């Protein structure tokens, strides 16, 4: 009990004195990063310091450098911006400024520095480290520090965590703040969409990104914009206006009432001339006669609380950064913490900065092929796909007409954010290739009972990207529960050459059934892909399911509101019940992203000793808070964590155990967790995965047709099995895995979830950062 969080402060035997600063432009998630660094440092028996106002705080010293304690960062997870301030500091760019900074750091006893900022800030940090030996020597020679101080501060350990809304840093897929910024942009464009549609207007929208078009590109995909301008992929001055007008007039001819063009702040043509929103507007007015307005989103893009993903990313990066400085030595290169797909990674900071700078150099040298090589795979894939689904013409000339196919999409299971985005991308990409996209309406029972299948029309789905739920309808019926023979019959009748299933565990079960029935039903001998989509994220074969991000955003927002209520009443905690079936993913990540006291999950059940310990910890925390805790206390419980210890029972136990010193309430967000408007992550990932699924189907006809012998029998083989696959994200890979392998080896059938849990680390971190004591 003594380790309840407020008293979790380093005592004797301090390992290191770790300071953290935020520098450059502010970004949502910076506070989550600082909180994680401070608490991890204290947890690891270090002293923690904050440097206020970036490098100028380091140069100014005094009160700008402060020791900070565990409870000082209560409630920071939900705060936007950076609570320790940030600045741009010219003095630090000069050696003199860095000498003063070095002196101030030594006087404060700081031995390691973690900088959360963009490439400029990280360049400064690395230079500081490289120069450190000469700086301390000069301080010793001029008598400003003692020999003792000199000996103790021989080496400066640094680490970078990348915070920047532009996502302009190489060697990491995403930077802290960029998805929150994208969220603000998409919400704004969703609102603009409605007015544009009402008046049949065109809107030219400027988004941030001076040297990087990531925000413009991802917003373009997520909001189904008609055209984008980004610095990485410019056209000739003589060509861009013509091409833009061709695409937009095609869209208008097909019946679209509105036009959205997104322009990155740093948009240029291939001769490096800037392209401004007004340039674009003038062309739309003059050449197409469109009633056109310009909207500059400006600093709204930096504002507000961080989305769940940024809280997760910032928190994990903070934990890894402390680990990196504790394990650093003069021979290890300065590290930078980033993420690749779903895996937190440590990269060489200098190499990452060099690579980032080389992007700007390649742009200046007009070597745009190199620019694309230097951007990560995810970026170039997204750009390729955006261009494909927004090409003016249907039918890709590189695909001959005999290769034009009929592909169908179906939703199975509960609705999840991103299902409609997948349908939108699927249909648009099919059309751009010359295929015919079909939708199967209302799941497998819709097909077998009502023959509800028809081709998708471009205009009909035009605004589906930003819609929640499932426009084509979804239910949990599997083929065997309906009529697998009829399903095969209709697939044959409509000459369906490939099937994309988007859904949760029932969708996996359905794919397994279809694949397993191929020998009896020739209509099922087609390539088939499952894109997991369920808020529970319980489908084996992937660490990410469409909808889980939207759900987490909803939960985090919900918990922020509840937490405010709990905090205002000073002596109340909330037990929040979350969905997730038998899977504790959502509960764990909600705990991590909302800073909840604990999460009870089905995989662990609720141990009475643990519950007792959690309540004792809660008592101590309420006592120590003394009414000053900025964030209210929340406990998260998965709906199926325990049969006996229901949410109400836990709430009652807490109330009665508190002896009147605090009370508890329960809160059940229920179906709110399925989300309203899908998050940008769910929309953009749905697009990328749907297009990858079509590419997979296109390239698997041979493998499946070879599985039939001369008399039409189906012979199973690894090649044939591989044509029915789950498309998932696993660590830093996007993978197609045969459903037979997943079903036979990776699925816990009774519990309807994956066998291997990948969120243990997130659980440990979530507990550690709230000082939870485990039995
Ligand atoms: P953003 O991506 O938001 O612009 P950034 O970290 O790249 O963030 P900068 O303004 O480039 O923002 O850098 C922030 C601060 O880092 C600068 O004001 C300066 O104090 C320090 N800094 C940047 N570059 C250097 C450098 N080459 N040497 C020393 N310090 C630097």
Automatic annotation (TrEMBL):
Q: Where is this region: Interdomain linker?
A: 392-405
Top EC class for this record = transferase
Q: Does the keyword Iron-sulfur apply?
A: no
Name the positions where Mg(2+) binds. Answer: 119
Q: Which cofactor does it need?
A: Mg(2+)
> To which pathway does this protein belong?
Carbohydrate degradation; glycolysis; D-glyceraldehyde 3-phosphate and glycerone phosphate from D-glucose: step 3/4
Q: How is its activity regulated?
A: Allosterically activated by ADP, AMP, or fructose 2,6-bisphosphate, and allosterically inhibited by ATP or citrate.
Transmembrane regions listed in the UniProt entry: none
Q: What is its EC number?
A: 2.7.1.11
Active-site residues, Swiss-Prot/TrEMBL? 166
Q: Name one GO molecular function term.
A: monosaccharide binding
Q: Which residues form the Phosphofructokinase domain?
A: 18-325, 407-696
Residue numbers binding substrate:
164-166, 201, 208-210, 265, 293, 299-302
- What are the binding positions for beta-D-fructose 2,6-bisphosphate in this chain? 476, 534-538, 572, 579-581, 639, 665, 671-674, 752
Q: Where is this region: C-terminal regulatory PFK domain 2?
A: 406-775
Per the record, GO CC terms? 6-phosphofructokinase complex; mitochondrion
Q: Where is this region: N-terminal catalytic PFK domain 1?
A: 1-391
The function of this protein is: Catalyzes the phosphorylation of D-fructose 6-phosphate to fructose 1,6-bisphosphate by ATP, the first committing step of glycolysis.
The annotated subunit structure for this chain is: Homotetramer.
**What protein am I looking at?**
ATP-dependent 6-phosphofructokinase
| Organism name | Pichia kluyveri (Yeast)
């Amino acid at each position: 009990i003594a380790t309840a969080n407020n008293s979790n402060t380093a005592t004797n035997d301090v390992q290191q004195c770790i300071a953290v600063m935020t520098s450059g432009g502010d970004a949502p998630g910076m506070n989550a990063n600082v909180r994680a660094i401070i608490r991890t440092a204290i947890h690891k028996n270090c002293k923690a310091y904050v440097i206020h106002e970036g490098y100028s705080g380091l140069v100014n010293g005094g009160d700008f450098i402060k020791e900070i304690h565990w409870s000082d960062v209560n409630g920071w997870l939900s705060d936007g911006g950076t609570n320790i301030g940030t600045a741009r500091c010219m003095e630090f760019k000069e050696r003199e400024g860095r000498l003063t900074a070095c002196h101030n750091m030594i006087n404060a006893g700081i031995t390691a520095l973690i900088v959360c900022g963009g490439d400029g800030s990280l360049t400064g940090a690395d230079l500081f480290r490289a120069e450190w030996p000469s700086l301390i020597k000069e301080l010793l020679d001029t008598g400003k520090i003692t020999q003792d101080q000199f000996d103790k501060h021989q080496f400066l350990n640094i680490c970078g965590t990348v915070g920047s809304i532009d996502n302009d840093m190489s060697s990491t897929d995403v930077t802290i703040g960029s998805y929150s910024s994208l969220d603000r942009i998409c919400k704004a464009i969703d609102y603009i969409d409605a007015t544009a549609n009402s008046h049949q207007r065109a809107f030219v929208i400027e988004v941030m990104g001076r040297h990087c078009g990531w925000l413009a590109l991802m917003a373009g995909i997520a909001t189904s914009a008609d055209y984008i301008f980004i610095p990485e992929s410019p056209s000739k001055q003589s060509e861009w206006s013509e091409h833009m007008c061709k695409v937009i007039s095609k869209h208008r001819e097909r019946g679209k009432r509105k036009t959205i063009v997104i322009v990155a702040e740093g948009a240029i043509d291939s001769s490096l001339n800037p392209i401004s929103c007004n340039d674009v507007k003038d062309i739309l007015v003059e050449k197409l006669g469109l009633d056109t307005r310009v909207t500059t989103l400006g600093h709204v893009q930096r504002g507000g609380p961080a989305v769940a993903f940024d809280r997760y990313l910032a928190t994990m990066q903070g934990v890894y950064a402390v680990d990196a400085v504790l394990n650093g030595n003069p021979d290890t290169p300065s590290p930078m913490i980033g993420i690749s797909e779903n895996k937190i990674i440590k990269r060489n900071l200098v190499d990452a900065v060099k690579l980032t700078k080389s992007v700007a150099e390649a742009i200046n040298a007009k070597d745009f092929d190199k620019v694309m090589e230097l951007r990560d795979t995810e970026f170039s894939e997204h750009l390729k796909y955006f261009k494909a689904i927004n090409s003016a013409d249907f039918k890709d000339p590189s695909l001959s007409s005999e290769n034009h196919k009929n592909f169908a999409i179906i939703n199975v299971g509960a609705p999840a954010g991103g299902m409609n985005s997948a349908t939108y991308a699927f249909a648009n990409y099919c059309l751009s290739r010359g295929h015919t996209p079909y939708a199967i309406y209302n799941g497998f029972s819709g097909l077998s009972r009502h023959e509800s299948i028809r081709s998708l029309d471009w205009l009909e789905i035009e605004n589906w990207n930003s819609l929640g739920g499932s426009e084509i309808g979804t239910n949990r019926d599997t083929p065997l529960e309906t009529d697998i023979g009829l399903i095969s019959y209709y697939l044959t009748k409509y000459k369906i050459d490939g099937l994309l299933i988007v859904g949760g565990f029932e969708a996996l079960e359905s794919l397994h059934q279809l694949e397993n029935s191929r020998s009896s039903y020739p209509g099922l001998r087609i390539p088939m892909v499952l894109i997991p989509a369920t808020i529970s994220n319980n489908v084996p074969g992937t660490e990410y399911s469409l909808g889980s991000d939207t759900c987490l955003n909803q939960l985090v927002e919900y918990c922020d509101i509840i937490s405010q209520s709990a905090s205002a009443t000073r002596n109340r905690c909330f037990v929040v019940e979350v969905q997730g079936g038998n899977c504790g993913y959502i509960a764990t990540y909600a705990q991590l992203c909302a800073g909840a006291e604990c999460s009870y999950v089905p995989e662990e059940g609720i141990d009475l000793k643990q519950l007792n310990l959690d309540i004792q910890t809660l008592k101590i925390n309420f006592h120590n808070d003394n009414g000053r805790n900025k964030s209210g206390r929340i406990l998260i419980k998965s709906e199926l964590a325990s049969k006996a210890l229901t949410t109400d029972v836990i709430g009652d136990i807490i109330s009665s155990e508190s002896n009147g010193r605090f009370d508890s309430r329960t809160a059940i967000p229920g179906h709110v967790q399925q989300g309203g408007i899908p998050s940008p992550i769910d929309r953009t990932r749905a697009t990328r995965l749907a297009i990858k699924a079509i590419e997979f189907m296109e390239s698997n006809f041979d493998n499946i047709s070879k599985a039939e012998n001369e008399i039409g029998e189906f012979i199973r083989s690894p090649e044939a099995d591989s044509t029915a696959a789950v498309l998932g994200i696993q660590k830093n890979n996007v993978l197609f895995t045969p459903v037979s392998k997943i079903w036979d080896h990776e699925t816990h059938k009774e519990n309807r979830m994956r066998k291997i849990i990948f969120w243990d680390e997130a659980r440990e971190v979530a507990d550690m950062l709230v000082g939870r004591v485990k039995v």
